[in-house]
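Troubleshooting: if your tokenizer reports a length mismatch, compare your output against this known-good record of 137 residues.
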Amino acid sequence: MTMTLEQVKERYPGAITDAFGDSPALADELATLIIAGKKVATCGALQSWQEQDPLPQPGGYTIVLNGEQKPVCVIRTTGLFLTRFDRVTPEMAMLEGEGDLSLDHWRQEHQRYFQRGGYFHAEMELIFETFQLVEVL
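Known-good structure output:
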């Protein structure tokens, strides 16, 4: 039986909700990678991250939504740190679990993503978040 968002929120009081990416297709793709255990990190532009309310916190839970805005899994934030786009390492790119896991792929796809949002710069500040999968819904 599929749980509703309200039921998941009851199970995880205080959890935030988030659909990763900037389109339904990308939200589905990234949620699938999380559920498969391949994606254990994400990042966002500091500028847009600060506009979120509420913000992820270490130890906090996030209910991950798919492209249809339905809950598919729950993750728990294990770490947050500030870095810059041009300082992302191959290891960090691999933790994001996307494409061929290379830094080159990460840079290409994230540059496109941030350009779509209108705030790409090679030295832009990023919040890098690591997390663990808690439950598949």
